[in-house]
Amino acid sequence: MKLLVVIAVSLCFLLLRRPFPALAEEPLTTVRPTDTGAVLENPGMGWVLHFYDNVPQNYGSKLAPSDTVDDFPGRTVVYLRIPWSVVEPEEGKFNWAVVDSPGQRWIAKGKQVAFRFSCSESWMRYATPKWVQDAGAKGYDFEPGKGVTEGGPFWEPDYDDPLFLEKLDHFLAAAAQRYDGSPEVAFVDVGSFGVWGEGHTYASSRLGFSADTVKKHIDLHLKHFKHTLLAANDDFVSQDRGDSTIEYAQQKGLTLRDDSILVQGGKNAYFHAVMAQAFWPTVPVILESEHYGGSRDRGNWKDGSQYLQAVEDYHASYVSIHWWPREFLEETRDLVARMNQRLGYRLRLTEAAWTTGSRAEGALQFTSKWRNAGVAPCYPGGFPALTLKDAKGGIAGVFVDEAFDVRSLPVAPPGQAATLTQQATFTCPFNLASGAYEVYVSIGTRTGTPTIALPLPADDAQHRYRLGSLTVRGHYEVQLGALTQAGDQWLLPLTWTIHEPLPEGVQPFCHFEQNGRIAFQGQPAEGGPLADLAKPGAVDLGCTFSVPAEAKGGTFTVRVGLWDPAELGRPDERMIPDHGDQERRVLAGTLTVPAEGVPSLQRPQPEPRP
Fold first, then answer.
1. 212-225: b or e for each residue (b if 16 or more CB lie within 10 Å)?
2. Which fold has domain 28-37+347-473?
3. Which helix H or strand E contains 186, and what residues bound it?
4. pLDDT at 25 (0 to 100)
5. What phi-psi label fits residue 242: left (phi over 0), alpha (psi between -120 and 50 degrees) or beta?
6. Which of 10, 265, 314, 332 has the highest CB neighbour number within 10 Å of its CB?
């Protein structure tokens, strides 16, 4: 298919412009970059900082408004897990500032937010707003560890109650109006079922709601969040509900999150890695560790290596900072560093080769070899782009291979992922001037906008990475002789060095400009070897001109070049010089025409060539 596209594009190109004879294959520049070990912050992956963790004081309350924990390597998401009642204390009256205020701190740094709105907590009576109960919704008093208890300190709704579901429906509609489809939001948990929003009632009423109940809550979220990634909890299968809830979630396009890794230690550190296998090939899997301090103090955490192993087994893209963030970082820094090398996707360029010197409007070959050194696919996808920058850092050319999507790179255990090769041949655009260029590689959109950070050096701060350089050659070079008089005209001798066969009919032009306009022109010297300009080699053929009467007393900029009259009015009517301006002309100097006497030509000062 790729070959057919290349052939079709090539045929269209030949039909639209003059044919240049084929040249010998150009030599290639080849580089083999090594992984810098850099921590990558990329879309659809990273560390998730629990700012609100059900209890609003955990774990962002110690952070000043200006503190976004920038020193934590790889954090990309701030997680706001908060009871519904905190956001909607009165029916229809919302306090979105509770989540938007901290959220904006991270959004301003280019990060994302994620949400869970819970309906049952073991530390406050009404996670579901009290006004929902007052309106007649059914529910149960409970005591943690005992279940339903008359007069218990906490209240949990009947998750099937129609009135409760109606009020929840309205709340989710309001939330989705603000957050669904927003690029600022990474994911939203289906958190309306179970204590802490975890999909079970072990620490609340202990009532065994059915799989159909869970599906109702999934459907309510899907009804309103049509674009943002939704997350199903692994504990949806608990309390004898079976796998149908998770299978349903997977069929509906949800992802999986596992709460909590390392609640226990050893072989019971986690239970549902097999469950994740249905999800990770298409959506990013989310892992949440047990509260770090609790796991540590019970002796379950040890060196944390099972958290890293869970990343491998679940093919996880997101992992949690489930504790006071700086304490967690200080005590697990080495673990964090190792996890950052495997978490999500890590696109490695192992080799790149490109045409060392391309002719103007000629072919530019680009070959690259890529490997995904992470545990998960690059879900956003992206396409390799080769960008050429001039000496001032300006973007002169962008070439994207749309036939190669990095989403297709396979994943495997450390060091075992297969390498895929991308190959493309691009045509230099008509307005790419000849000269030396810096070569950059990136992964991003079809239009060449970088979107993915790579573990490469020489980042231009926009995720383009310098690989080397190349030279774009023009069709010819020209040298000037001394201005001489030829009868009643003047002759500007020109020696053309033609690099490659040119179309028949090519001839010189000579412009005399004043104030940016062509005041008069020269013509090819009569009897000169015009036909030789179509052949490679040196050709002596100057331009003659007469000085109009109105030009006397004036000064004119002289520019010369080659053009094809058969292409008049088309972008490529002029041949491209080795060193010229954007209009494909070479500066020949300044002609001064005195009111009386002989005109003189002052040569331009030579410019340093790159």
1. ebbbbbbebbbebb
2. Immunoglobulin-like (2.60.40)
3. strand 185-189
4. 65
5. left
6. 314
CA dihedral 406, 408, 413, 417 (to 10 degrees): -70
Question: Which range has the worst mean pLDDT, 7-11, 387-391, 481-485, 527-531?
Answer: 7-11
What dihedral do alpha carbons 373, 374, 379, 381 form, nearest 10°? -20
pLDDT confidence bin for 9, thresholds 50/70/90: very low
Q: Pinpoint the residues of the chain covered by CATH 2.60.40.1930.
A: 28-37+347-473
- The continuous run of DSSP H or E covering 2 comes out as helix 2-16
* pLDDT tens per residue, range 208-226: 999 999 999 999 999 999 9
Comparing CA positions, the residue from 14, 73, 10 lying closest to residue 336 is 73
In 3D space, the residue among 437, 439, 543, 541 whose CA is nearest the CA of residue 483 turns out to be: 543
Structure tokens at 201: 């009632």
508: β partners: 562
Burial degree of 550 (CB within 10 A; 0-12, 13-18, 19+): exposed
Beta strands in 448-533 (DSSP E): 465-473, 476-480, 484-486, 489-492, 494-498, 507-514, 517-524
Identity at 263, one-letter amino acid code: V
Level-2 CATH architecture, domain 476-602: Sandwich (2.60)
**Residue-wise pLDDT tens digits, 349-404:** 999 999 998 887 789 999 999 999 999 999 999 999 999 999 999 999 999 999 99
Q: Classify domain 46-121+158-341 by CATH number.
A: 3.20.20.80
Query: How far, CA to CA in Å, does 392 sit from each of 323, 389, 442, 457?
Result: 47, 8, 19, 20
Q: What is the mean pLDDT of residues 539-561?
A: 95
Residue listed under structure tokens 């005195």: 594
- Cα→Cα distances 534→26, 280, 508, Å: 21, 60, 12
Q: What is the mean pLDDT of residues 425-442?
A: 92
The two three-digit tokens of residue 321, written as one number: 């900072």
